[in-house]
Structures are given as structure tokens and as C-alpha cells.
Amino acid sequence: MSLYVDTNALVPLYVPEVLSAVVTTRLAQEAELYISPLTETEFCSALALKVRQRHLRRRDADRVLSLFTQHRQHNRYAIVHLTANVFESAAAYLRRFSTPPRTLDALHLACCAYASLTLFTADRSLMQSGRHFQLPCEWVQPE
Amino acid sequence: MRASVRYLKDHLSQCLLEIQRGTEIIVTSYRRPVAKLVPLSSQEEDAQETRETFFAELTALRLDLHKRVRGKPLSQTVVDIRSEERF
Q1: What is the sign of the dihedral through the CA atoms of A71, B76, B65 and B53?
Q2: What distance in Å separates the CA atoms of residue A60 and residue A16, rounded to the nearest whole number?
Q3: Which tens digits make up the pLDDT trace of A33-57?
Q4: Yes or no, beta carbons of A42 and B68 under 8 Å apart
Q5: Interface check A126 vs B, CB under 8 A
Q6: What spatial distance separates the first Cα and last Cα of chain A, rounded to whole Å?
Q7: To probe the interface with A, which of B78, B81, B83, B86 has the most A CB atoms within 10 Å?
Q8: Other C-beta atoms within 10 Å of A35: how many?
């Protein structure tokens, strides 16, 4: 089954950190990597916070986003589009009132379900929500 | 061309050269054909090259940024931002 790469599992490809090696090795085994438009939004948000905290220079953040945009434009990722069906599935998860996921989590899970993908994530809470809804999940952690 | 599993084990490099030249090799086990080794199509070769370029670009960027990123890992920043919304 193909992987839906959660934002927190994608960013280590671009910015060096403790997960970079394990994520690179794992994702290199996949023929196609799936993301959604949410990925770009969260990627920008996290980079913006790093810049505000002065943990990353603005021009470095620009370079990271520039390469990510280039990869998107060259179809290095397959996109799961946020259609009305995806929003409806997300709402259905939230209507069960059985887990703590909020809007963003539910949308990511709905993308996985809609495209029949395995969630590849470093976010333990999201993985637990995914498993609660019986979605296939793969949790990535440092070696 | 046919090759047994044992022959393949002993002559893998030679067999791969043959495949690169365009030969298809039927692999046999106990004389029964069980697999076929074929050269990559030009489309598959291009896809492989594209993937190698993709990961090479990422590695180059990370190496360049290596000493200029501080604080928590970016993956954790994504999780932290989400956590502010949860609960």
C-alpha cells in the first residue's frame, strides 16, 4: 500500500534533524509519495515559526520552500486533493466524538481513507487516531 | 536464455551484464521456470534517474543547512503547532 506522508514526516527530508536518515531510507523504498495541499500549509507554518524564533534564517527557509515547490511542480509527489468527499469524511470522523482529533487531524485521516493510503507519520496522537478509525498507519521514530 | 538459481548465484555480475545488453533471463528452480529477469525500459530508467536526482537534491540541501538550523527538530515543531489546537 502506498504512503500518505504526513507533514512532520516530510519535513525531515528538507531540513536536517534526528529523523532525516530514517525517513529518507524508508521513503526511498516507495515508488510514489502522496501528500495533500495541507502539507504545504503546515510546512510553511512550521518554517515561519522557526524563522520567528530565530532558529532558521529567512533565506534558508526560502530555499527549503523553493525546493519543495519545485518538487511539487515536477510531480515528485502525488497529490490527494481536498475534495468535498474528503471534507465529508473528515466531518464523519469528528461526528463520532470518540477521539480527540481536531479539524486538521481529521482532514489528514480523511485523505488517507479516501485514497486508500497508509498514513506515514511521526505524530503519535495522529497515529493513535488513525488506528482508532482502523486506518493503516506507520509510525516513524528515530533509529 | 535460461539460468538456474545456482548458476545465477555464482554468475550474478555476468548475468546482469547480459541483461543490460538486452537479454531476458528465465530463472529456473528444479528445472521449472519461476521468474524472468528483464532490462529496465527507458521509461523505467528515466523514473529511476528522477528519483535519484530527487533524493540527491534533498541530501545536498540538508548538508548545506546542517549547521544553520537550531532549536527543536522541524518535525516536532509541526506536532507542537498541532497540539496547540488539540484538547
Answers
A1: negative
A2: 12
A3: 999 999 999 999 999 999 999 999 9
A4: no
A5: yes
A6: 23
A7: B78
A8: 24
The verdict on B74 touching A (C-beta cutoff 8 Å) is yes
pLDDT for residue B22 is more than 80:
yes
Model confidence over A78-88: pLDDT tens digits?
999 999 999 99
Nearest chain B alpha carbon to A15:
B62
Question: Closest chain A residue to B69 measured between Cα atoms?
Answer: A56
Please state at what angle helix A7-14 crosses helix A58-73, rounded to 10 degrees.
110
Measured in angstroms, the CA of A84 and the nearest CA of chain B are apart by 23
Q: If you compute the radius of gyration of chain A from its CA atoms, what whole number of angstroms results?
A: 15
| pTM of the model as a whole | 0.80
User: pLDDT for A74-130, tens place per residue?
Assistant: 889 999 999 999 999 999 998 887 766 688 999 999 999 999 999 999 999 999 999
Note whether A20 contacts B: Cβ–Cβ < 8 A. Answer: yes
Contacts of B82 in chain A (CB under 8 A): 42, 102, 104-105, 123, 125-126
**Quick one: how many helices (H) and strands (E) in chain B?**
4, 3
C-alpha A99/C-alpha A97 separation (Å) is: 6
- Strand B25-29's sheet: what is its strand order? B2-4, B25-29, B32-37
Q: Does B63 touch chain A (CB under 8 A)?
A: yes
